[in-house]
Amino acid sequence: MAHYNCMLIDLDNTLLDFDAAEASAIAATLAHFELPGDAQTIAEYRAINEKLWREFERGSIKKERLLTLRFSKLLNHLGRQGSPAKINDYYLGELAKGAQILPGADEFLADVEDYVTVGIITNGAQKAQMGRLEASGIGAFADGVFISEKLGVAKPDKRFVNIALEKLGVSNRKKVLVVGDSLAADIKCGAAAGLDTCWCNFREQENDTGIQPTYTVRGFEELKTVILEQEELDHVGEKKKYQL
To answer: Which InterPro entries match (predicted)?
Structure first.
């Protein structure tokens, strides 16, 4: 039997290339609203956005406020007028088209889906994430998709994964693995819930956070060996999902 039979896996920069989707979406948005689209402006937006998302993860700002405040701050930086709400709505529509799959992600999901229950977990905006899941085809591998604004709680709050497991009908928590690229959101969330965790360190970053994952992997082939036993690795696709 698989080492784990339920995997809660993050979406952005774990399965889908958020950076590529963001770059395309923000460029299209700035052009649409006739705002400067130079590298310095895009870098400023990313800095503003990143800071606000970290505040969101700490629980110090609501997502609805975050989504418009980032563009309000950008407009102030540029000394321009505009509607942050309208800009954000357009941006999310563009972001929803971002179907870039990280290399190997779809093959990985195809190999493990017969052995594990797959829950995709994300703090991202629902409008964008559902569009990206559909456009990429990644959503077809999931037994459930869990988005913070729909659950009413966000990673790293342990209630996020607890609600996801309840909705999936998973009771054996020892066989659950939380997977993601963010130590502060994904790994901290899983650990807080008493679950095993796997940090997808695809960019080979240093971990100076004090947050310790159960496993660290640098690619999907390595992740597969964490989840499946050797016999299953030798016969991927030949067996049906185990009962939880």
So the answer is: HAD-like_sf, HAD-SF_hydro_IA, HAD-SF_hydro_IA_YjjG/PynA, HAD_sf, PGP-like_dom2, Pyrimidine_5'-ntase_YjjG
